[in-house]
Amino acid sequence: MAAPKKGRSASSQSKPGRSLALILIAIVALTGGMFASGHTTPRLGIDLAGGTSITLTAKNEPGQPNAINKTNMDTAVDIMNRRVNGLGVSEAEVQTQGSDNIIVNIPKGTNSEQAREQVGTTAKLYFRPVLALEVQGGAATATPTPSTSTSGSPSPSASETGDKATSTSSASPSTSSSPSASATSQGRPVTDALKADASPTPSTSSTPAASASPSASATADAATAALQAKYEALDCTKAKVRAVTGDGVKPSEPTVACGKDSQGQWQKFVLGPAEVSGTEVEKAQAVFDTQGASGWQVTMDFTSKGSKQFADVTGRLSQNQAPQNEFGIVLDGEVVSNPYVSTSITGGSAQISGSFDQTEAQDLANMLSYGALPLTFQESSVTTVTAALGGEQLHAGLIAGAIGLALVIIYLVVYYRGLSIVAIASLLISAALTYVIMALLGPAIGFALNLPAVCGAIVAIGITADSFIVFFERIRDEIREGRSLRPAVERAWPRARRTILVSDFVSFLAAAVLFIVTVGKVQGFAFTLGLTTLLDVVVVFFFTKPLMTILARKKFFAEGHSWSGLDPQRLGAKPPLRRTRRPSAPVDMKEA
Question: Which of 11, 447, 560, 583 could make a disulfide contact with 441, Cβ separation 3.0–4.6 Å?
Answer without folding.
Answer: 447
